[in-house]
Amino acid sequence: MERGELTMKRINVPAKDGALISAVTIDLDDSLKKAVVIICHGFGEHSGAYIEVGEELQKGGFASIIPDLRGHGTPPEGAKKWHGQVPNYQCFIDDIVSLTKTAKQIAPEKPIVLYGHSMGANIIINTLLKLPPEETTVYSCAILETPWLELYRPPGSLEMKLVKVLNIIAPRYRFMRKLNHEILSSDPERAGGYLIDPLYHGYISMRMGTGLIDGGKYAIENAPCFPIPAFLAYADTDRVISNKAIKEFAEKAGDIVTIKEYDSMHAIHNDKSRELFFNDVVAFIDSHIIST
Q: Can you give the pTM of this predicted structure?
């Protein structure tokens, strides 16, 4: 696949609670694109780190919109201790809906696809499970790359009790849990990119952490109700999230989820199997938007 010229813009999308969601768009107003992919990044990341993902999808004929998820990206002017904060987990879901509305306003005839990596996949799964069924029909399919359903080393029972208490008495309290770049990608150059990225952070508040942990549990428990076709990619040497939890989700979801293992670390899109992965992603999306 070869990349043509692309049009990239940064826009602000109004959120349900009045906040503005900063997002990068790629070819969103190009009438020749086959679909619009909403791309949700992983924990500690930001929209700019996924422009290359948008470019790979552009090669396949897709436009994209890539938001800075709550608590990520460039903090609003004057905001302090903004990284890792979120009003509540529901805001993530509401923001996906707001981004979808914007995509439909700009490209009303285009199918919508959801793509999420790690934390972003956690949010996408919960969005699709918690929205009313009639609202999920706007999405043709979903791409779930190494979804954070449970951590590789989950918190112990005592640690979880402490987290739950802190979530009640100090929900905005943050701690640093920056991921080791060496377990994100086996490609030294790409792994090193996390180290020099000024917006890559490791802050997570009690409220955000509790929401994501609970979201992972909810996803597995309610997997049989997953409403749309999904391509679920997991890495054979992932030391960030639990592959056991991913496989349990896929088994419970049934045939609506297509699962595939890659020779990779956690960030498949940033590792040695990336070309194969993107070829598979484009083929999967193509096979699910033809009839829409």
A: 0.96
